[in-house]
Design goal:
This protein is of the alpha+beta class and 386 residues long. It has helices at residues 4-13, 22-29, 36-45, 49-59, 66-99, 109-117, 137-146, 160-166, 197-201, 219-232, 238-250, 256-265, 269-283, 294-309, 317-327, 331-343, 347-352, 363-385, and strands at 105-107, 128-131, 169-173, 179-183, 204-209, 212-217. The chain has two domains: 4-344, 2-Layer Sandwich (Beta Polymerase, domain 2), CATH 3.30.460.40; 345-386, no CATH class.
Length: 386
Amino acid sequence: MSQRPELDLLIACALPAGCRETGSRVRAALGVPLDWNRVRELGAYHRVRPLLYERLTKYAADAVPANVAAELASEFRSGVARSLYLTGELVRLTKAFAAVNIPVLPHKGPVLAQTAYGDLALREFSDLDLLIHSSDLPAAIKLLEECGFLPPPDLAWLSPQALLRWTWETSYTSASGVSVDLHWRLTPPHYTVQLDPDILWNHRASITIAGSALPSITPEAMLLLLAVHGGKHCWEALGWLADIAWLLDANPKLDWQLAWKLAGDTKCHRPLLLALSLVAQLFDANVPKLGSDPLAGKLRQRVMARLYQGPIETPRSPELFSFAATLARQRSDSLKHLLGVVFHPTEIDWKERRLPDSRFWLYTPARLARLCGKYLRRKTSSSERT
């Protein structure tokens, strides 16, 4: 089913602050029949509910059904309260890390909201992302526990050594429901695109939020991080593209040569070109022509088709792998990723059984057996339906 009228409204509402045509675009998008339930559903899925509410209220309040306006207002107030609380927790945690001399780099979340939007209320975020050095993982875990953040009970037994060997991030949650994603890598070790964490560490900056100075990264490094993150998730959410559009709008003097160099240093030219082409097409962003890549063009077409006609659901494994394979710089990267997807244990495997560090290698054959059994069950179920 086409989602064009509703999605066109979301895009109009998500145009960056510097766009002078936002009001006329919003009103034009309201000039056709809309399914307001679909508008709200898409707004939530694409993570643009704050922008949807703010722009409709500003430019076309009289065109929104009263019940929809009330629901959007309630969601907006709840979102603002949540964002402010998360920001307070981020300030508390960064101070705690600084007190024990553990370097930490917040990214996305409140930092991105302030850097790109200049307003914590305009960007949806639900957790906190912290980058640390891998050598600091044991100390960082201890500190988070002291601050009231604990791992899921069925994963608390994993040692720091196992985490470092087999994954790239881990999550901790407080009693109040705040989730912290602790990263020491930015992509899975087997993924087709590898963004070196040193890119962020070497391009640190500072930002003031709610009167507190917090560590951050430069706009050029943030642009590359967003491009890789969005590509890894097939650019399923329009809000991620709005992040880039607003980031570029807020930084008209962005150093494009540096951004291109950083992409080259980490072999991330294709994800960057894809992100910029999508932002240019959807938000009329003025981006320079940094290079050409036919595969990036094909991926852009896939993203656009999914946005307008695809399912309102997170991409599944086959779609994720196909997208990652096209992002790959060379075939060997795709093969490495395939082997990693098949043989690399995940949280599902760790929750099924516990093994000591010395026997972690047994997760590989156990995972293969589990995946084979899952495939056979699906095949049998499909045959029975036929």
